[in-house]
């Protein structure tokens, strides 16, 4: 199993649409951050699916250390990148 790679020392602000399913990148290898592009294949890792509960902007974790995935919980402030 590979280790997660931090992609950003802070969140990604992205627009989402109510009822739509999104796949948050958990490995950090995706070229379409913060979303999964399948780059984790062969690592034993999986993307994190979530359904937007309303239309608007959400803040998705970029450091991959959040305890509230896929949403930023400020963990990037406690990690040394």
Which terms summarize this structure?
22% strand; globular; mainly beta; 81 residues; two-stranded antiparallel ribbon; 4 strands
Note down, in words, how this protein is organized.
- It is a single chain.
- The chain contains no helices and four strands.
- The protein is mainly β and 81 residues long.
- The strands form two sheets. The chain has a two-stranded antiparallel sheet.
- The radius of gyration is 12 Å and the shape is globular.
* pLDDT < 50 stretches: none
Q: How far apart are the termini?
A: 21 Å
Largest sheet: 2 strands, antiparallel
Number of domains: 1
Shape: globular
Number of helices: 0
Structural class: mainly beta
Overall pLDDT confidence: 91
Order of helices and strands: EEEE
Number of beta strands: 4
- In spatial order, strands of the major sheet run 1-4
* Estimated helix fraction: under 10%
Q: Which radius of gyration do the C-alpha atoms yield? A: 12 Å
Proportion of strand residues: 15-25%
Give the structure's gist in a few sentences.
This protein has 81 residues and is an all-beta fold. It contains no helices and 4 strands.
């Amino acid at each position: 199993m590979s280790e997660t790679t931090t992609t950003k020392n802070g969140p990604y602000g992205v627009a989402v649409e109510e009822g739509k399913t999104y796949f948050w990148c958990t490995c950090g290898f995706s070229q379409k951050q913060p979303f999964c592009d399948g780059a984790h294949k062969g690592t034993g890792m999986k993307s994190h699916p979530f359904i937007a509960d309303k239309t608007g902007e959400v803040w998705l974790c970029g450091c991959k250390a959040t305890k509230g995935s896929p949403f930023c919980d400020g963990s990037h402030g406690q990690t040394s990148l």
